[in-house]
Amino acid sequence: MKAPVSYPHFARPSHVPRLFVTFLAGVALLAAACGNDDSGSADTSSSTGGAAGSSDLPRGDEPVDLDPATFTADITNPYWPMEVGTRWTYREIDEEGNEQEVVVIVTDQTKEIADGVTARVVRDTVTQDGELVEDTFDWYAQDDQGNVWYLGEDTAEFEDGEVSSTAGSFEAGVDGALPGIIMPADPQPGMQYRQEYFKDEAEDNGEVLALDQQVEVPADHYDDVILTADTITIEPDVLEYKLYARDVGPVLIFGVSGGGGKEELLKVDQAPAGAGTGPLGEPNG
Questions:
Q1: How many helices (H) and strands (E) does the chain have?
Q2: Potential cystine with 88: which of 40, 61, 104, 124 (Cβ 3.0-4.6 Å)?
Q3: Any idea what DSSP says for residue 19?
Q4: Residues 6 or more apart from 185 whose CB is under 8 A from it?
Q5: Which residues pair with 98 in a beta bridge?
Q6: Under 8 Å CB-to-CB from 110, ≥6 apart: which residues?
Q7: Number of Cβ atoms within 10 Å of the Cβ of 203
Q8: Interacting residues of 180 by C-beta distance below 8 A, sequence separation 6+
């Protein structure tokens, strides 16, 4: 994921509210407590008979055998509902203070992934000073237990209006790439899972640290928030925390190791018809 963008170490800008500073001060203790509690760990054996349940989430390069009949492109998981037309707008600030805008739109389009699962196409566009710097089609689907799966992405970085890189693009079922979990159906502290796996290219992992949190971002104050920790196997120094609000989705992401930056939700609204459906480099169609 991309789901949404990975960040390095968090550097606190002067405008960060006191609520967030208090949260950040306590989060390391919370993460340590969760990480040391083996009793909350999920069963992570691989799934071979169909969609994985919340207690049977894939990790690393564990194979999965997904049954397309048990999946839908209509994603209703309460911690990342992807209703067609929903648009999230985020502000990203890197460790140097550079600001970018990230816009994520759930399109009405679907894509059949190589393993046969029909996925929802979600458009993720990053601009800086009005100039396109990254553009991505992400592919998600939900199994019949409510787990949201990440099935790949078609991504491009841009410089001066031209594609400079497509690194990170992959499709589950092609060249050994495997699908992963973005949000479990019933998240519980200690659950660990891979988010994506494409050897030496995309090896992202997630872990649920805590439930029933709260956070305040420009969009709103949110209760009933889930806190996760994301790591990258091929970049072991990178760690970021993500907060997901019920009935909203991701609201805050910040790096705590490997650099510094954050992404915060500015607003959620409905995109105009056709938004996000153009080819890469032309996100508005």
A1: 1, 15
A2: 104
A3: H
A4: 53, 54, 77, 143, 145, 146, 147
A5: none
A6: 73, 118, 119, 120, 121
A7: 20
A8: 58, 149, 150, 193, 194, 195, 196, 197, 204
The identity of residue 5, as a single letter, is: V
Q: Are 95 and 8 in contact (CB under 8 A)?
A: yes
* Amino acid of residue 31: A
Could you tell me if 77 and 85 are in contact, meaning their C-beta atoms sit under 8 angstroms apart? no
Residue 77: CB atoms within 10 Å: 20
Taking the C-alpha atoms of residue 245 and residue 241, their distance in angstroms, rounded to an integer, is 13
Mean pLDDT in order along the chain per 10 residues (285 residues):
37 32 42 40 36 69 95 98 98 90 98 95 96 97 98 95 93 96 97 95 95 98 98 95 98 90 96 94 83
**CA–CA distances in Å: residue 50 to residues 44, 56, 171, 252:** 15, 11, 19, 32
The length of the chain, given as a count of residues: 285
| Structure letter (DSSP) for residue 75 | B
Specify whether the CB–CB gap between 126 and 102 falls below 8 A: yes
Beta bridge partners of 99: 93
Q: Which stretches does DSSP call E strand in 176-272? A: 178-183, 192-198, 202-217, 220-232, 235-245, 249-257, 261-270
- Report DSSP state, residue 82: B
The domains of the chain, with CATH numbers, are 18-270 (2.40.360)
Among residues 241, 234, 178, 253, which one has the least CA distance to residue 207? 241
Cα separation, 123 vs 277, in Å, equals: 8
Task: Tell whether pTM > 0.70.
Answer: yes
